[in-house]
Amino acid sequence: MTIERITAAQARRIALGAQGFGAKRPDAANAAHLRKLLDRVAIHQMDSVNVLVRAHYLPIFSRLGGYDPKLLDRGAWGPKRERRMFEYWAHEASLLPMDLHPLLRWKMARADRGEMGWSSMKAFATERRAEAEVVLKRIRDQGPMAVSDFEEGRSRAGWWEWGDAKRILEWLFYAGHITTATRRGGFERVYDLTERVLPRRILDLPTPSEQEAHKGLIERSARALGVATRGELRDYFRIRPADSDPAVAALVDEGVLIPVDVAGWGKPAYLHRDARRPRRIEGRALLAPFDPLIWERARTERMFGFRYRLEIYTPAEKRVHGYYVLPFLLGDRLVARVDLKSDRQNGRLLVQSLHMEPDAPGEARAELEGELHTMAAWLGLTR
C-alpha cells in the first residue's frame, strides 16, 4: 500500500481546520454555533482555576469570539429539555455532547466493577460498596447534593484532598450512577441520579459493545484532530492501548482512517477521511491551557515548534513565562504567550507578562492587542 506523504505545514493546517480554526467568526454566536462546535471538538475540559475565566468557557471564545457564557451554562446545567452536554471523566473532567454517553458506558461499567478509577475509589465498588449505597440512597431520597452537604462541619477539602464522601461521590459519578445536576457557587459539583438529569432520549439509546464504543471514540478523536498519531488518538478520550489499537486497525480497514507519513513527525500518523485540507488558515485566537488543540504538549511542540508548560504549580520565582499563560495563535502559528488575569474588583484585564516568539511576524503584537481588547469586552472588562 502506498502511504501518502504530508508536509508538516499541511498537517498543521489540517489539525487547525479540524479544531474549528480558520473560519470567520460569527457576528453573534448562538446556541446553534455552540452545538456545532461541541460536535466538532467533542470535549471541553474543565478546571477549577478562575484567575482569568473557567477553562471550559475559553475554547468557544477562541473559535467563535464573544458569546454569552449562559449559552454554555444552559446547555450543560440548564433544564433537562435544553441540555446538550453532560459531565464525565473523558480526557479529564469534561463537558461532552450528549450523543457520546452510550460510547462511554463501557468505562462506567468497568468503574462499577472496580476495574477503573483511582485506587482510593475502587474499594467502593467491592468491599465498601455498602457505604456507597447509603450515599446513593440519600441522594435518591433527598435530591441533588454536593460534597459539602455530606461533610458539613469540616473544612472544605482541596481539589485533591478528598474525604470519604468525595471519594464515594466520585466513584458513583465515574460508575455512572450519578451525574452533575448543576454547579454551586461557581464550581462545586452538585450530584443527582443520572436518570433524573439526562434526557430520556439519551438514556434509551442502545449501549454498544466495548469494541464498537472504542471504535466510535477513536473515530471522534480522529475527526477532532484531523491528523494524529496512534497515541494522540487514544489520548483524546484516554483509552488504553489494548482497547485503542484494535479500534485503529479496524478503522483503517474500513477506510475511515488513512495512514499517512507526516514529514518530521517520526511516527506513523492517521488522517480522518473527511478531514479538510485548508490551503491557508487565517484568524487569531488566545488558547486556554486546556484547549484540545494544545493540551497534548508533545503534539504541540512537534506541530508548532512551541514548547509549552503550565506553570501554575511552579514556585513563582522559578516560572519562566507566568502563572496562567495563554498561547496566541495567529494564522497557523503560535507566535506569543501572555499571562492574563481578570482584575474583577477594578474591572480590568491585566497582562502580567508577554513573551513574543523569536520568529513572530511584525504584525503579531498589534494582532494580539486586538484580541486582548476582544477578550476584555467579552469578559466585561477594560484593557
Number of helices: 16
Task: Report the average pLDDT across residues.
Answer: 94
Order of helices and strands: EHHEHHEEHHHEHHEEHHHEHHEEEHEEEH
Distance between the termini: 56 Å
Uncertain residue segments: 153-161
Instruction: Give the number of DSSP strands.
Output: 14
Q: How is the largest sheet built, in terms of strand order?
A: 1-9-10-8
Q: What is the share of helical residues?
A: 25-40%
- Please summarize the sheet with the most strands: 4 strands, mixed
Oligomer: single chain
Shape: globular
Descriptive notes:
- This protein is α+β, with helices and mostly antiparallel strands.
- It is 38% helix and 19% strand.
- It is built from 16 helices and 14 strands.
- It has helices at 8-18, 31-41, 58-64, 70-77, 105-112, 119-122, 129-142, 147-150, 164-174, 194-197, 200-203, 210-225, 230-235, 241-253, 297-304, 364-379; strands spanning 4-6, 44-45, 85-89, 93-97, 145-146, 178-184, 188-193, 227-229, 257-262, 269-272, 284-286, 325-330, 333-343, 348-356.
- The strands form four sheets. A four-stranded mixed β-sheet has the order 1-9-10-8.
- A hairpin with a 6-residue loop joins β9 and β10.
- α5 crosses α9 (164-174) and α12 (210-225) packs across α14.
- The model is unreliable at 153-161 (pLDDT under 50).
